[in-house]
Structure prediction request, 679 residues.
Amino acid sequence: MMTIMAIPTTQILFYIAASVALLSALLTVTRYNAVHALLYLVITMLAISLIFFLLGASFAAALQIIVYAGAIIVLFIFVTMMLHQGDVTIKQESQLFRPGRSIGAGILSLILFFETMFLLSPLYDLSQAGVSTAVSQVSVISTKTIGVNVIGAKEIGLTLFGPYLLLVEIAALLLLTALIGAFHLGRRHQEVTI
Amino acid sequence: MNVALGYALLPWIIISSTALVIMLFTAIKRDHRYTSLMTSLGLFIALIVQIMQIGVVEQHHELFIIDGMTTLLSALLILVSLLLSFLLHPWLQNLNDPKEEYYMLFLLATQGALVVCASSHFGSFFLGLELMSLSLVPMVAYKDNDQIALEAGIKYLILSAIASAFMLFAMAIIYFYSGTLDIREIINHFPRTANSSNIIYSTAISLLLVGVAFKLSLAPCHLWVADLFEGAPLPTTALLATLSKAAIFVVLIRLFSEGEWHNQTGVITIISIIAAASMLIGNFLALLQKNMLRLLAYSSIAHFGYILLAILAIKPSLPLTSTTSLASEAAIYYLIAYLITVVGTFAILTLLTNNKHSYPLTIDCLKGLFWVKPSYALALVFLFLSLAGIPLTVGFVGKFYLTLAAVNGQLWWLLAILVIGSIAGLFYYLRLILTMMEKQTDSTLLINTSSSLTSHFILSFVIVMVIGLGVFPDGLAQVIVELVS
Prediction:
């Protein structure tokens, strides 16, 4: 009985995170300013990582934050900010970076923040008390997810270096290709400026 | 990884290690001649190993299927790469950019095509596809200070990303409902009654078709191909037109036959419309085209429209045959004919231009070629006749096979469109031949051409293949029959 009660809680959390992801993705596309768009993109990534977590793929969730929300988006923002130069753009930016402008992004990320806090808090465990008191710590984590299976780093590692070993190697070639291509195309800019 | 699998994948290992070795050598010292030699040598060794494996090696890995059909087509893809690799040195020699990267990307693109060709799992299919398109993007935009090439590169990058997104979505839907990504297993996880079409499966297939149609430049997704053919450097265009399309087409055959798409009526309708539209649009756009490369782009749209007929004929229990193999044989034969002909055409065009043209390569550039360079002109005449499907060339046998499969599959209205398309095709191929036969020459293009050992070798190889397989199609057909069934 209690487990049936437990499912709606996670589902509600899922729908909130999903709507945040959709809304921020929509806002990403419709923003006129690149930095604003990127801020919303960060929120999209964070919301998606929360969805991953709810689905039981905690490792993918962590990767999503580290790789997308962390590394790639920070690079994006750096580049976009560096492209803005000159007095006119600085004046523009002082207009753009008023706190009032970031209110939408702030609200969306606050929603995600509270959701995460709720997931981590004892309040959440209380909402599915019947399950959590009876079982061990590991399955407490598993009740926080929609799916039954929690896929951790170990399972992913075993799959990647077991049946999917060749895919990992092809992915390595893929990265190498990207590197060579980026090296060649990036070089051109240098030559033109000289 | 066991030894048998290691042997089956030996050509891949050779090709990727060649790319890696070239990269390491380039890091120490750049030497264009050795790099070029190494590329050709690596591909040559891989080709020999692959040919030795045809029909002998049989591996059913989780991710790959290596059987007769895969080994034959892989050997063909490596052969195409090898032929094109001979042309890279003279072309890159005239370029101001760093040259060695092109070889690495070239080898990695070949590797990607081989992975796609052998993939039996959506994971390997997608990664191979990305490997191929990601290495093609810098190859398209390789030339320095070339606005058109850069534009073509961006177009290809963005559009192929969109196509990949569609494909990924299709794979996600399929995985969601079947719980497997293995192409051979998917159909077992959908409810299976006689002539049942499953709406979810059909939707997923349609999304998958968007991606595939983009990569094959089939009718509704063909808009990029002309710009790309025009903008990209000729060897890259050749690679795009042959290697990338052929590899994806092999997977399409596999998807169709393993996934039993013929039961999905909606899918059949969509593919029929795509085929008809490709045949008509491709041929009619090429009809009055002045630019040589755009013309070839449109004709490649039409050719893949033709091959779709063979795909549509893949279904069990047909009048002439009890098995599905005739249609697959026809598709593979036509694919081989297309590969040989197109790679020959691009090889000769590359030899003729050698990067010295900065103007668009129009049909007028070929004016009077026959009187200046008869051997080149003769080879081109055979190739165009083969593309048009005139008897005694390999293209005719391919089209004959195709028509047989289509009649067997009772695709009557598509056959009618095939005939209309072929007549339109005949018009512009013959126009090209007539242009070459014209008396006066005003082209500076032709004077530049130097005859080397490589060019003689390629010319004779192409003519022998096109005419030889056209006059004696038996041998190849026998091999295909044995390997497919």
